[in-house]
Amino acid sequence: MGAAKSGGVPATDHALLAVYPGWGMDGERMHSREYGVPPERWCVTKQDLRFLRSEIEKAIEDRRIAPTDCDPFDPCDRKTGPCMYNVVQSYMKPLTAHAGGMSWALMRHPNGLDCDMFLTHCWAEGAFELIDKVIWSWPMSTKGAWCCILANPQNLDISDLINDPGSSPFAKALCASSCLMVVPTRATSNYSRIWCIYEAFLAVELGKTVLTASSPIMHRLAYSVLIGLGISVPSFASGYWFSVNASLSLRESMPVVLFNFFPLTLACCSIWVTRHPRVSAVINCIGTSASMILVGGSVYRAVGGWGYLPVLRMTVPSCYFFCNEVDRLCSLRQDKEAGQLDSGYAGVHGAAASVEADRKRILDEIGHRDVKVDHSIRVLIESGMSTRCLRRAAKLGVDLRHAGELRWGFVMLSAWLVSQLLEAVSDVSNWPLTVLLPFVLVLALIWVLSQHDHKAFMATMLIKITLLVVLISLPAQLCTPFQDTAMLNALRHGDNKTKTDIIEELAKEAEELSMLVSHSLEAGFSILLLFSLVGRGWLAELPCIGPWLVQALGPGCACCRCRVCWRAHNSHDQDSGSECSLSDNASDASEANGSRSGNRTHGE
Q1: Annotated region Disordered: where (predicted)?
Q2: What are phi and psi of 577, to 5 degrees?
């Protein structure tokens, strides 16, 4: 190897310095308590993870990482990849040992990074699975993330650093972070490991937001887009052909009838089948076909000189169905990841560790708060995330399944229905729009400043309140055309005085409809604004009706008030339960997990 101009360092090492600025430094000193980088700064960036993925791919091609008896991965697989145990032993340890013994994170950033996010995982996942989920779910405001595999020096003895869990690098990093991200895996539940349990315990004690890392949906979405295009093209052609060949009266009346009644029908169907993915997929296909038929007819009329505004209006249903399909795929993914977190989870006392002394120390520190930790983990599994607000609502008995699931289709459908209401009265008055605009601006501000779970709650509240407003004003909208037809017939055959009375009656009727829509929107959006300001947690604490109200406005249906009360009663009983019952549960869980205890990970 040749020597570089500066200091006789080999040229290959200079090349490594370009990608590993910490190369050649004293790793033991970098990680020492006295002179080293603080443990909470042993972080990596999103770009670091992308770089690591490419380096692992190269290592697989060079057979530096190869299948083993314990990890018989497929070298051609780029979705799951080798187990993280294998990556550490075959790639990370040799690399960091040659660099000076520091961790991979400090090899990339010798001065460390501020910790914005803490990653918790179980070491049994595939490297590509872990990296892809974290990159896809990376919060926009996050720069540095702390991950034990990358943060801890794999070639150094750090037993003295983790001897006291409360002062360990894990605890310090979690205290410094703003959120904790759980990376589920198909191999086993993260919470079958005691260190992941301890991280969940710290997150609850510190009031941290806990997120679930999700796998990308782009592969499945590509198939959905192809199917959508296959449906849209012939449907558009059919709509255009129908408009060319149908009679004038049929061309003018049929699309209007379809468009006026389509939003409400669509809303009812799409909302009631959100938890039935196959039915939802069929509705998306049928809805896409129907909306593209309307677009085809609108394009024909636009070419004939009717203007292109109806074309833009008719494309809204297609956009809604696309959003609904994205929501469906995200919901399927969340159900899968919730199952991964739940599979093998047997409570705090059922978790295991490679070092039994670590397990005892952690359980001693958790103490009587084990029920609280179990409760938080259950919230995470059911809702996809865990925040103070969600934990408070769950304690009061609210069913939080899918509570962290933000459905953009609901937002778009609500905007679509409100625009239809405003259009119905736009010829009479712009007062409904004037009333609505301040509410929309304030709600938009709340939306921007809110956490993900509150945005999801706002979206479900928005669609349910909007549907209620539509139902209130629907009878008047349905009766108005028939009344107008009768009055117009009378207008043709009446005298001048009668005609004047009829015209005044028509104007009065239109004004009443406008005021009904205005008052309905004002009342609905006032409630929405109030509940958005209060939040799910505080709203659930309202006496008597709080849990039911949150359940009714959240995802799903609150048909059974008794079920909510039963959940709240059970939650209260668990919080005040005896230590005897806890120890019984712990022994049952340990016995149930006895067959798995020999395969525990020992990363920490």
Answers
A1: 572-604
A2: -70, 165
